[in-house]
Amino acid sequence: MADDLNGTYHYPFPEAPEELVKFGDGAIEGRPAGVPSSYDEGGSLRWTPEAISEVHALAQLGRYQVRGYNTFNKRFPTFDDLTFVPATMTRLPLEGYRESCDTTTILGGGRGLVEKPLELKIPIYIASMSFGALSANAKEALGHGASKVGTMTCTGEGGMLEEERAASNKLVYQMSPARYGLDLDHLRRADALEIVVGQGAKPGTGGLLLGMKVSPRVSQMRTLPEGVDQRSTVRHPDWLGADDLAIKVEELRIATNYQVPIFLKMGATRPRYDVAIAAKVGVDVVVVDGAEGGTGASPELLLNHTGIPTISAIRAAREALDECGMSGKVSLVAAGGIRSGVDVAKCLALGADAVMIGNAAMIALGCNSPRYLDDYKKLGTSPGACHHCHTGMCPVGVATQTPELTARMDVAAGAERVARYLTAMTMEVTALAKACGKSNVHNLDMEDLRALSFEASAFTGVKMAGIDRAYGW
Amino acid sequence: MSSRYVIEVGNRHIKDVNEEIQAAAKAHHSLLVRNTLSRHNLGIGLPKGVDVAFEGSVGYYCGGLNTGAIVTVEDDAGWGTGEGMDAGHITIGGYAGMSAGAAMRGGTIHVRGDAGPRIGVAMKGGNIIVEGKIGSQAGFMAHAGKIIALGGAGASCADALWQGEVWVAGEIESLGVDAVVKEPTAEQVAEVDAILEPLGLVDSARNWRRIVSGQRLWYFESRDANAWLMI
After folding, report:
1. What mean pLDDT comes out for the span B106-132?
2. With an 8 Å Cβ cutoff, are A247 and B60 in contact?
3. I want to staple A213 with a disulfide (CB 3.0 to 4.6 A). Which of A392, A428, B84, B89 is the partner?
4. 3-state helix/strand/coil string of B124-184
5. Rg (CA), chain B
6. Chain B contacts in chain A segment 353-412 (CB below 8 A)
7. Residue A242 counted as domain residue
């Protein structure tokens, strides 16, 4: 074949020298320029440079790696796989700049059991992040920022920080399995209690706070030796299954005199079953934290390879509540990887009553902002790529316990940025809601969304764009 | 006993029972709770300065989140007795179920019989005295405080402790992860005897095993912050 092809034509000029045919001018000897080499590029989907360096790391350290922030798994569907389909011929939009859209959000009143359901001005609040994981200044700034716009914060598992209690008009107090600092006084000073069963970033495991962040104050609040690597218990000390938990919920209601709602927070794993069980147990609010949720520190494998995406978890949770007749009685809060008002609106449309933001709120405080560049450089990272929450060497004073770094977190400035960010997010939610013809953000629903990928449609039941049918099994 | 304010439990809503206990505790020093039927959540968040006696047996979380009351349970108690308590004194006349004194921060729990698994789990302070045997995983991840067992201990005793201590006289089925038996000093024995003395339980013939953390689980790799820079 090759002989035939080459044998029938003769150039009307001398044949070019081989070195010129092969881009001989300036090429690397032995490899023509423009001919890619697998030695440069790799090409194995399995043994990527990242996979190889992971083996090298395990082989040298003899342990898994720990880091903060959130999942680096690139295969997760994102909120961007969904798009809104605003009002056109089948419905009327609202005037985006003139007509109003209600954002009031009530949590925990559905059962009619507690005296003081939470009334928030917006459907967004600040996620549970502990003092320990975050600096006291960061916690205080989050509290003031949330209070300014009529929403709330959550203590996280490190106990009640007085600065946060004072700053937050409404504060959810977490009862984690480790029960750091938990006492009756704190329970009664909270505006809601949250029983922690798990978190999206690392479901099935307890909290993790490395020794660099177990400062004198943190160690005192958690009754821990200073500087130890705190790996919290994952199972609650005094209940094991759902039947026990129902009794525990009753105890907490008695302890707080039936005043405040009780939340249950879980990592998203089997929400269709877990949420139904949580509703049956008797809590007022279920918080489902998707696998994109952040953390101060976690074995990296758990961040990247456990849990299910937030968009899929919300739908499963809502269907579970619908199926057992608890929608309206039990509120549903979604979390995990929410970055903007657009993401918030998608969560509400998928079925959440409210959302909470963790990483996003930290970023609003200044996480990964381009300042103190030398300190980022010392960590071997740069603004926009930093995930050093676990080391406590946070260049901007958000995720640290080192006094000099904490001082970089200006409470007043941070609070204002958080307030503005929450305001802007709420504007984004209402802009979308009004375009969809909704005068209340809680009226957004599945019909306002279309999926841009088979995966997103299959995970959520949202109809595929154009064809208007959900991907079915 | 006749001067005591008497509260009947029976099949009343447990919320109403607790409200009556709280209200009575403001006006009376001594309460007697009768007809308990092993109900759960009796005497939650009791205040300081009141003495509450429960006739018969109680269910889960009796005396939970106690802030200083003197509580007596005539017979047995279910799970989580005195969980999260800050102060006060709870006496169980019979046996205690799982997780008595879970996450307690202070005060004393005294069990006259045996106690179930995970007694004193995650406790942050206070003392637990068990005249009989303590169940498996006693003191799991106890942050502080003492568990004192006079009649032996089950498997995985003192598992994964922080700074809590488990003292055992009698057989120990097995020690938990990172648990280390240390010979107590005379001073330390005197401290324990001072806890036992008001209960009339001092016995100088006891062969104590004092179990503390081996501290191998306390550190992962964090002593050198720079070690984390490679991640």
Report:
1. 98
2. yes
3. A392
4. EEEEEEECCCECCCCCCCCCEEEEEECCCECCCECCCCCCCEEEEECCECCECCCEEEECC
5. 19
6. 379-380, 388, 390-393
7. yes
- Cα gap A73→A84, rounded to integer Å: 25
Phi, psi of B143 (to 5 degrees): -80, -40
Q: B35-69: per-residue pLDDT in tens?
A: 999 999 999 999 999 999 999 999 999 999 999 99
- Per the listing, tokens 């690597």 go with A229
The distance of A275 to chain B (nearest Cα, Å) reads: 24
Which residues span the domain enclosing A136? 79-460
Which burial class, exposed, middle or buried, applies to B104 when counting CB atoms under 10 A from its CB (0-12, 13-18, 19+)? buried
Q: Which of A392, A385, A360 is nearest to A370 (CA)?
A: A385
Q: What is the pLDDT of residue B228?
A: 55
Q: Is residue A248 situated within a structural domain? A: yes
Res B231 pLDDT > 50? no
pLDDT for position B1: 44
Q: Nearest CA of chain A to the CA of B154: how many Å?
A: 18
Pick from A187, A244, A250: CB nearest B79? A244
| pLDDT greater than 80 at residue A248 | yes
Of A228, A390, A392, the CB nearest to B218: A228
CB contact under 8 A, B143 and A237: no
Total domains, chain A? 1
A362 exposure class (CB count in 10 Å sphere: 0-12, 13-18, 19+): buried
CA distance B1 to chain A (A): 27
Which residue in chain A has the smallest CA separation from B120? A237
Q: Does A247 fall in a domain?
A: yes
ipTM reported for the complex surpasses 0.85: yes
**pLDDT score, position A164:** 97
Asked whether residue A359 is domain-assigned, the answer is yes
**Band (A25; pLDDT cuts 50, 70, 90):** low
User: In terms of DSSP bridges, do strands B108-111 and B124-130 run parallel, antiparallel, or are they unpaired?
Assistant: parallel
Residues B42 and B36: beta-carbon distance below 8 Å: yes
C-alpha span between A471 and A333 (Å, rounded): 26
CB B63 within 8 A of CB B46: yes
Question: Which pLDDT band, with edges at 50, 70 and 90, does A27 fall under?
Answer: low
CA distance A222 to A232: 10
C-beta neighbour count of A188 within 10 angstroms? 16
